[in-house]
Specification:
12 helices; globular; about 290 residues; mainly alpha
């Protein structure tokens, strides 16, 4: 008798659990990047994920994407969501782009998704949702306003813009071309394709030297297990079960949750304007997601 309410509560909790796990990835990366260069860090992260998921997929005899076309669609979505998005973020930070500006750029994803959802997916964006998306972006601006910094150059923003394009196109591509797939095998395909890219970037642009420490190992395992397996599995579930705009709107709350985590863990500044922005962002997401 109580099974259905429990299932409903779990379904309602999934989006916010995803936001919590996804936001923790930025904290894990900040803990780990001082001990390894960015692309080397991503390469090690993907290797751990594949070392775990490949045996699970083989032992459980999970079905692989059918046909060359489906395999390519899954791999391409993975390249956009994992390789292009994460590589673009870390490359911008490496060039000196302030984290606040990076957050603002990638936070335009829900607006971009809404703009193209009608054409690409046939989804209708309601006026209430448009209002929520704009409100969510305003909230994000308020959250990261004190972190924007100065001394920007156009080249610093190019990888961040590429990351924005990657996460936007990746979610829509997966929604349209990969509506149903086994999470175990398809995630293997996506990370294997992404590993090729990040390993190539690490080999050609970095020394690939790692300073092993307890903090680095913890950070690496956290982003590999909690983010790359846990959060990505929830993201794939949300993409498959919801509209692209609903899923994208959740990313507005990521800077707010990350700011709270950074305040609690690193003692970073949390201004009154940031707190107001958090409330505005949450309200915007509530409006954008609808009922």
């Amino acid at each position: 008798m109580n099974a259905q309410p429990r299932i409903s509560r779990w379904t309602a909790a999934i989006p916010w659990l995803f936001v919590l796990l996804w936001s923790s990835g930025f904290i894990g990366s900040k803990l780990g990047v001082p001990y390894a260069e960015p692309f080397t860090f991503l390469t090690l992260r993907y290797c751990i994920v594949l070392a775990i998921l490949v045996p699970i997929a083989l032992v459980s005899r999970a079905p692989w994407p059918q046909g060359k076309g489906q395999m390519l669609h899954v791999a391409f979505a993975g390249l956009l969501i994992h390789a292009l998005y994460l590589s673009g973020c870390v490359w911008s930070l490496r060039l000196g782009l302030p984290a606040g500006i990076l957050s603002l750029i990638v936070s335009m994803q829900p607006l971009f998704t809404a703009a193209f959802a009608g054409v690409a997916l046939g989804e209708r964006v309601l006026p209430r949702q448009w209002g929520g998306l704009v409100l969510g972006f305003v909230g994000t601006v308020l959250v990261v306003a004190h972190k924007t910094g100065s001394g920007l150059t156009f080249m610093m923003t190019v990888p961040a813009i590429a990351a924005l394009i990657g996460i936007t196109m990746g979610t829509m591509w997966q929604k349209r071309h990969c509506p149903a797939f086994d999470l175990r095998t398809s995630t293997v395909v996506q990370y294997a394709a992404s590993l090729i890219v990040t390993a190539g970037l690490a080999l050609t642009t970095e020394t690939m030297q790692v300073e092993w420490s307890g903090q680095f190992v913890f950070a690496l395992l956290w982003v590999a297990l909690v983010l790359s397996i846990g959060a990505i599995s929830l993201l794939n579930h949300l993409i498959r079960s919801g509209t692209a705009v609903n899923v994208a709107s959740l990313f507005y709350t990521v800077p707010a949750v990350t700011a709270l985590m950074a305040w609690g863990i690193f003692g970073e500044t949390l201004t009154g304007l940031s707190l107001v922005g958090m409330g505005v962002a949450v309200l915007g997401v509530w409006l954008a997601r609808g009922r």
